[in-house]
Amino acid sequence: MLNRLFSIMIFFGIPLVVVGAIFHWSDIPMFFLCCITIIALAGYIGRATESLAIVSGPRVGGLLNATFGNAVELLISIFTLKAGMIGIVLASLTGSVLGNLLLVLGLSFFAGGVKYKRQNFSIHDAKYNSGLLIFAVIVAFVIPEIFSMSMDHAKTLSLSIGIALILIALYMAGLFFKLVTHRGVFASAEQREEEIETPEWTKGKSMLILLLATVAVAFVSEQLVHTFETLGEQFGWTELFIGVIIVAIVGNAAEHASAVAMALKNKMDIAVEIAVGSTLQVAMFVTPVLVLISLLMVEPMALVFTVPELVAMITATLLVINLCNDGESNWFEGLILFAAYVIIGIGFFLL
Amino acid sequence: MLNRLFSIMIFFGIPLVVVGAIFHWSDIPMFFLCCITIIALAGYIGRATESLAIVSGPRVGGLLNATFGNAVELLISIFTLKAGMIGIVLASLTGSVLGNLLLVLGLSFFAGGVKYKRQNFSIHDAKYNSGLLIFAVIVAFVIPEIFSMSMDHAKTLSLSIGIALILIALYMAGLFFKLVTHRGVFASAEQREEEIETPEWTKGKSMLILLLATVAVAFVSEQLVHTFETLGEQFGWTELFIGVIIVAIVGNAAEHASAVAMALKNKMDIAVEIAVGSTLQVAMFVTPVLVLISLLMVEPMALVFTVPELVAMITATLLVINLCNDGESNWFEGLILFAAYVIIGIGFFLL
Amino acid sequence: MLNRLFSIMIFFGIPLVVVGAIFHWSDIPMFFLCCITIIALAGYIGRATESLAIVSGPRVGGLLNATFGNAVELLISIFTLKAGMIGIVLASLTGSVLGNLLLVLGLSFFAGGVKYKRQNFSIHDAKYNSGLLIFAVIVAFVIPEIFSMSMDHAKTLSLSIGIALILIALYMAGLFFKLVTHRGVFASAEQREEEIETPEWTKGKSMLILLLATVAVAFVSEQLVHTFETLGEQFGWTELFIGVIIVAIVGNAAEHASAVAMALKNKMDIAVEIAVGSTLQVAMFVTPVLVLISLLMVEPMALVFTVPELVAMITATLLVINLCNDGESNWFEGLILFAAYVIIGIGFFLL
Known about the structure:
3 copies of one chain form a homotrimer.
Chain A lengths: L1 H21 L4 H42 L2 H12 L3 H30 L3 E2 L2 H25 L5 H29 L5 H8 L8 H24 L1 H8 L3 H26 L3 H26 L13 H18 L3 E2 L1 H20 L1
Antiparallel strand pairs in A: 1-2
Function (chains A, B, C): Ca(+)/H(+) antiporter that extrudes calcium in exchange for external protons.
Protein name (chains A, B, C): Ca(2+)/H(+) antiporter
Keywords (chains A, B, C): Antiport, Calcium, Calcium transport, Ion transport, Membrane, Transmembrane, Transmembrane helix, Transport
C-alpha cells in the first residue's frame, strides 16, 4: 500500500521537479513537491538497501546499510553545504539526531505501548548504543564546542578533522565488533536470521534502483535547498527551525514510518535499531564525512554546533539512555520522549 | 507524640500570628513564629490528605495527594509571587527539589542504613522516577535556560508557558499510567493495599481539617513572606540563601519527618516515594502552575532559574539517579547525598 | 623483569639527577632523566605499599594504599605548587583523572578484551565507584566552578576549603564503609584473601624502601618541575598540555603497567580498582589535600579548574560510568575509552 503510494509519488514527482526547475516555479510549491518526492525516493532506497543486505549476508549488508542508510541526508547536506549554508547543515544534523531519538523512538514506544502493555528489546543492543551515543554526543561533539571557545579558526578546524577521523574509525570498529567478533551477543541479529528472509528484489535490480534513486535524490535535493531562503522569509521561520525540524522530518520520514510499523508488530529490537542506529549513523558517520567533504568547498565546516543545538542533543541523549537501559518500553516512556521533542521544537521555533 | 506537639503548636501559633500581624511585631520573632506554625499545619494537611486518600481509593487519592501534597509550598510561593519577589519563588522551588532529593532522601538512607545493613525499594518506581526527573530537570528546565539566552522577554515567556502546559499534562499522564494502565507493576501500591488501612479521620472531618488548615497556611504564609527582607538584612543572608535553604526546609519539614520515620521502619518504598515523588510534584506540578498563575500578576515569572540554581538541580538529579537505579540503599549512599547537600548549601550561603 | 629494569633505572637515574642538578644540565635531557627515574621509583613505592598492606591486614592496608598510592603525584604537585605554577597543578590533577579513567581503563579493557571475549568485574564495586565519581567530579568540582563565577576570591577560597574538608571526610567514610561495615559485599576483597598472599618484602624492609623512595621522588620531582618552562618553549607545548598529558602520564606510569597486566590475567576486579580507585584517590584525597596545603604557600589554590579541564573530566566520568555499570567489558569498550582520550588529548594539545 505505502509502496504503491511511493511509486505514484515518484512517477509524478520527478518529472514535475524537472519541469519546475526549468521554468523556475515559485519556491513554496517547489518546496513541497521536492519534499514529497524525496520521501518517496527514500522509501525506495531503503527497500533496495534491505534487499541487497539480505543477498550479501549480514556483514556486507551492515556496511551497505551504514553507507546508504542515510544517503538522503548526506546528499541533501552536501548540496546545502555547496550552497554555503553551513548553519542549515549543522541544524539538520541536529534535527536528525533529535528526530530519531525523540520523535521516531517516542512514537514507536507510544504506538507499540498502546497495543502491548510492556515491550522488550535487547539489553546488549541498548548498552552498545548508549555507550556510543555518549561517546559521540557528549565527548566528540562537546569537546570541540568548549575547546573552540579559546581557539582560533584554524585550530578549531584541525580539532574537527581529528575528531571526524576518530568518529569514522570508531564507527567502523563498532561494525566489526557487532558483525564479526561479538556477533552472537546481539540477539536481534540472530532473530532475523531465524526467519528465512527472501529479498524483495534481485541483486541486479536492487543495485539499479539504488543507483537511480540516489541520483534522483541528489537532483531533487539541489532544488530543495534553493527554496530554503524564500521559505524562511515567507513563514517567518529561522534557519535553525528549517534545519532542525523541517529538513530533519523530510530526511527521516522513511525511518519514522518503518520504525512505528515494527513497534506495532512488537518487533521492538528492530524499531530501536532503526531509531538509535540511525542516530549513530548520523552522529558518527554522516556528520564527520560532511566535515571532511567540506574541506573541498569554499568554506570548510567545523564540528561546532550552536549552543542550543548541542544542549538539545545532550539532553535528548541523557533522556533516551535513561529510558532505554532496562530493555523495556511502554506508552508513557514514549510520551515522555515525544513531550521532550515538542519542548525542543517550540524552543527552536521561537529562537 | 509528634501529632500532639503539632496540636499545641497550632493552638498557640495561630492566635499569636494574628496578634503579631495586628500589632506589627518585629520581623525576626514573627519569622520563627510563622515557621513553627506552618510546620505544624503541614503535618495536619498531610494527615487529612492521607485519610481522604484511603477513603477515596488509590486513584482519587493519588490525585488528591498530587494537589494537596505540596499545598504549603504552593501557598507560600503564591504570596511571595504576589509580593513581587520572583527570585525567592524560583529559589524556594530549587530548594524544594534539592531538599527532597539530597536532604530528605539522604537522611532516610542514612538513618535506615545505620539500622539495617542494606535496604531495598522497588526498581520499577526508581525507573519511573528517574525518567521523569531527567525529563523535568534536564529537559524542561535546561531548555528555557539555554534558549532564553538568545531570546527577548516575550518569547521567553511564550516558551515558559508552553513548557508549563506540557509539564502539567505529562504529570497527569504519569498519574494515569501509575494508577490506571500499569497499576499492578508498581509493587508499593500493592503492598499498601495488603494492609487493611483504616483512615485516621472520617471523610467529612478530613475535608474540614484540610480546608481550615489550608486557609490558615495561606494566612500565615502571607505574614512569613513579609519578614524575608528584614531577615536578609539582619543575618546577612542573600535572597537566594533564604529561598533555597530556609523556605525550603520550612516548606518540607513534614516530609522530612515522615520519610525518615518510614526508613527506620524499613519501608524504603514509601520513604523514596515521599522524597522523589515530592520532588516530581514540585518540578512538574507546583512550578508550572506557578508560572501560569504568575500571568495574572503584575510581573509574570518565566521558567528561567539562575545558573547556580539550575546547575545544583542537575548535579543533584544525576547523583540521585545514579544512587537509586539499583533499588538498594545503605548508610554511605545517604552520607554521599547529605554531603552533596552541604556543599551546595555552603555555595548558596557564600553566593 | 620489569622490576629488574626499574632497579637499573634507579641505580643510574638518581646519581645522574643529582649531578645534573649540581652542574645545571640543560632542561630537555633533565626532563627525560627525571621522568624515567620517577617512573622507576613509583614502581618501588607501589611494591612497598603492597607488601606493607599484606602484613598489616586489609584495613590498615587500605589506609596505607590510600595515602601512599598517589604519593608520587602528591609530591610532584607540592613542588609545582611551591614554584607558584597553580595552573600546572590543576592540569596534572585533571590529567590524572583523565589518564586513569580513559587511558588506563581503556587499555586494560582493550588488552584484556582482545584475549578474552568478555570479562567481568564486581557490580558492587562499579556501583560504589560510580556514585563517588559523580559526587566528586559532578558535584564537588562543578559547584565551585559555577558558583565562583559570581563570587570574589576570598569567598571562592572559603568554598574551596569547605569542599576540600567534605571530600576528605567522605573519602575516609568510604574506606570505613568498604573495609569495616560492608566488607563482605565487596567480592574482590574476599577473592584476594582466598589466595594466601605472601608479602614480597618484610615489614621493616618495606618501610625503609617506602621512606627512601618517597624522599627520592620528592627530590627528583623538584628538579622535574624546573624543566617545565623550557619544555613548553622548546616544543611549543602549552602549560595545560604539559600538565594534563605529560605530567599525568609520568605520574601514573606504574598504575598503567599493573592495570594492563591484571587485565591480561583476567583479574578485571583489580584492574578496575587500580584505574577507578586511583581516580577517586586523586579526586577525593590528593586534590583536596593540595587545596589545604596551598593555604601555607604564598598563593593559595582554589578548587576551580579551567572550563576545558572540567568539561573533559565530566564527559570522561559520564562515559566511564555508562560503560562500567553492567560489570562487563570487551575490547570495543576499551577502544571507545581510548578514542575519548585521544580526542581530549588533541584538544589540549591545540588549546
